[in-house]
Design a protein that fits this description.
- The protein is an alpha+beta fold.
- The protein contains four helices and six strands; from the N terminus they run H-H-H-E-E-E-E-E-E-H.
- A hairpin with a 2-residue loop joins strand 2 (67-70) and strand 3 (73-76).
- The chain is extended and about 85 Å long.
- The N and C termini lie far apart (76 Å).
Length: 171
């Protein structure tokens, strides 16, 4: 920023011209030759799945209705072999960098779908399959009020005051 201001540059073309002269001067001043000519990087092992390593991952347990919840989204898993469900099974949900959402268990993919365009919000996934309209917050329980003489509504024994406690301790 300071270099652009000193050059009096206000447009993109001028900024590119300043950058073309700035980079060689910066490298000449601050570049340090390597101490070793051997490359510091190592090749990636063939057994390593970079897609899994570089993915956002969540561990979940499949619910009794064969669904998992991730970041506010409900994902319905298809039935397994012999039309068996996956209830109680531990799975790993992966949001891969190639744009796929993958649900895997025991090294096998159970579900692979395209991820939403904005990966930070999984709520827009097409495979969300709620079982019906969602009730309003707080209406999922009947909420019966207890009777007036219910033990919750009765006044309990009063806690002793601090003065009484200190008097009994001082004796």
């Amino acid at each position: 920023m300071a270099e652009l201001r000193l050059a009096g540059t206000v447009d993109l073309g001028g900024a590119n011209a300043v950058l073309a002269s700035f980079i060689p001067a910066f490298n000449a001043r601050f570049a340090v030759p390597p101490t070793s000519s051997v490359a510091a990087w190592r090749p990636v092992p063939a057994s390593l799945d970079l897609g899994r390593v570089c993915a956002f991952r969540w561990r979940r347990v499949v619910g009794n209705d064969n669904t998992i919840r991730v970041e506010g989204a409900v994902l319905q898993l298809p039935p397994g072999a012999g039309s068996r469900g996956h209830a109680g099974r531990r799975v790993e949900v992966q949001l891969r960098l190639d744009g796929r959402l993958l649900v895997a268990a025991d090294g096998r993919a159970l579900l692979a779908v395209p991820a939403p365009p904005e990966p930070s919000r999984l709520r827009g996934i097409e495979v969300i399959a709620p079982s019906g309209p969602r009730p309003a917050r707080g209406t999922d329980r009947p909420g019966y009020a207890p009777r007036a003489d219910h033990p919750w509504n009765r006044p309990g024994p009063k806690a002793p005051s601090r003065q009484v406690l200190t008097e009994s301790l001082s004796r």
